[in-house]
Fold each of these.
Amino acid sequence: MTHRHDTTPPDVTTHDAPEPIRVTVVGTGYLGATHAACLAELGYDVLGLDSDPAKIADLAAGRLPFYEPGLAELVERHTASGRLRFTTDPAEAAAFGDLHFVCVGTPQRRDSMAADTSHVEAAVAALVPHLRGDALLVGKSTVPVGTAAGLQQLADELAPAGVEVGVAWNPEFLREGRAVDDTLRPDRVVVGVTDPRHEKALRELYAPVVDAGVPFLVTDLATSELVKVAANAFLATKISFANAIAELCDAAGGDVVALTDAIGHDARIGHQFLSAGLGFGGGCLPKDIRALMARAGELGVDEALTFLREVDAINMRRRSRTVALAVQECGGSVLGRRIAVLGAAFKPGTDDVRDSPALNVAAQLQLQGAHVRVHDPRANATAARMFPTLGYADTVEDAVTGADLVLHLTEWEEFRALDPALLAPARRVVVDGRNALDADRWAAAGWRVRALGRPAVGPLATVSP
Ligand SMILES: NC(=O)c1ccc[n+]([C@@H]2O[C@H](COP(=O)([O-])OP(=O)(O)OC[C@H]3O[C@@H](n4cnc5c(N)ncnc54)[C@H](O)[C@@H]3O)[C@@H](O)[C@H]2O)c1
Ligand SMILES: O=c1ccn([C@@H]2O[C@H](COP(=O)(O)OP(=O)(O)O[C@H]3O[C@H](CO)[C@@H](O)[C@H](O)[C@H]3O)[C@@H](O)[C@H]2O)c(=O)[nH]1
């Protein structure tokens, strides 16, 4: 696909029906707010529904309550035009239209690795009794296979007499940091349906996107649910493969960056999702591979996915190995050491800190007695809400000045662009957890650069105790 980083709408005509299709989006977090704003951008009348009144108050006032490039502009523009509205009232949403997208969260359960589908069930249970005419519920949340069929049953039970409620699934593949472009120009649209009328309704809705050449793939409910989790499991596996090889490089003295570049030139392998380093985090990949393993267990086929246990274990080891490297570079203990952590978001381009590897490392070092100061260009506030006891710095300079060790844990462009000669730590030692800094440039400025899966670069003296 072309223009992957462009956040302008695709070059297609917007829907030109005299009466714009009215769509509701239930759950207006990272996924739902993006979906709602992009549907408004495509010309539809959209009503967003969320159970969080603070979030709805922000959105209704045209303010995006989180950071996502290009999205605030869409929300502002379409709330101003009236094409995008928000409510906390399920009855209002039920009366608004006959197409309802379900985008609520499916986090990992507290008591197991399985996904918590209670929000999806609650959303359907709140909406369906208010419906006054036939309606289609379209799930976008990432769910264990079988959820859609269960929701159809629930909807049948709760539908008012004479009202037919269908359930279809339309998994979402957007990446945070590129959510608007991924929504307006996806690699594919996948729909799981049980009725040709549902396929027709979704084809019509997605016509402005699909007419620009995007494949529209129609399948059954179970396959559509599985497509989503299989895609995330594959991506997680690719990353953990690179990180497993990085462990081997450490043992043998190889360089994982040169290695993954070399294997990535094979078109069958490709370069994407082979960046070794601190590993994957966020609100999706970690919980989705665990939920997939849990569901496979319930279905009696857990052997098929035992490799995902290793994918998860390799990934979690990246965090402990980064902590161990920091301890080593501090001469065996971080107690009383001043450590600057560059990055808090789980990846650049977002303020999302859910299961952030950077914050996990920062918290572990603090537990071991280090004085940690974190700086992230966008995620200081969300990080401080989740880890209020960590120290936060408004600038890179504030974080780094006087530090015994610098950890680079989220590869924001701002960090890559730093001039290492201008920084004033107590000791010039950096651990690049993302293999993203120009190690030679940092070494030329007198820094010792450590990374996972790569030989050390720069002055060899370790930090004295
Ligand atoms: N974030 C992503 O990049 C992304 C991409 C693809 C798929 N997904 C999937 O989409 C789903 C949502 O993820 P997210 O990142 O947007 O989560 P999120 O936590 O940002 O948003 C979920 C929203 O749902 C709301 N909600 C919960 N219960 C509700 C209810 N009963 N009625 C109305 N609103 C309710 C919450 O208040 C919240 O605003 C998950 O299943 C996730 O796996 C997320
Ligand atoms: O080579 C790589 C690529 C990514 N990561 C890490 O992997 C995590 C996830 O990155 P990414 O997949 O870009 O972010 P998400 O926004 O979580 O998107 C994933 O999860 C979404 C929710 O399911 C899906 O929609 C997307 O297709 C899928 O890429 C982050 O911590 C990255 O730092 C690596 O360590 N190495």
Note: The chain is about 40% helix and 15% strand.
Amino acid sequence: MVDVKKILLVAACALVDRDGRILLTERPEGKSMAGYWEFPGGKVEEGETPEETLIRELREELDIETETACLAPIAFASHSYEDFHLLMPLFVCRKWKGIPRGAEGQSLSWVRADRLSDYKLPPADIPLAAQLRDML
Ligand SMILES: Nc1nc2c([nH]c(=O)n2[C@H]2C[C@H](O)[C@@H](COP(=O)(O)OP(=O)(O)OP(=O)(O)O)O2)c(=O)[nH]1
């Protein structure tokens, strides 16, 4: 039988600070892939654009405000996990209001692009780390 997996659309964002460092957040205990370091973001809900998802998730997860004009799409991940196929556009954001904090208790780390691979990244993110290193 053909293995048909559901496509899960997740929007993710590389927040880049003035020194060119990228924000990674640690997935907390109790979630799938707990302990992995990821780009902030989340599932695109019904009726949302990926940009709207990110504006909402950045507010909920990091307590910062940004807008569509500050979100530039630069890459995407397409990766099969056991239960679903992840399709994840990655945006870069260099402009936001507020100071990012782990509003849901998650740990944060600002990381130089050439050090992203030092972190335990979800398998889908590994090619993205290499692309960011080359692009930023
Ligand atoms: N936000 C984000 N999610 C990622 C990344 N890489 C990656 O494989 N994912 C996966 C992890 C999750 O399966 C899904 C994002 O879902 P989510 O963060 O909104 O959902 P969640 O943890 O509340 O849900 P769940 O997986 O525990 O059901 O995408 C990434 O860099 N950022």
Note: The helical segments are 50-62, 126-135.
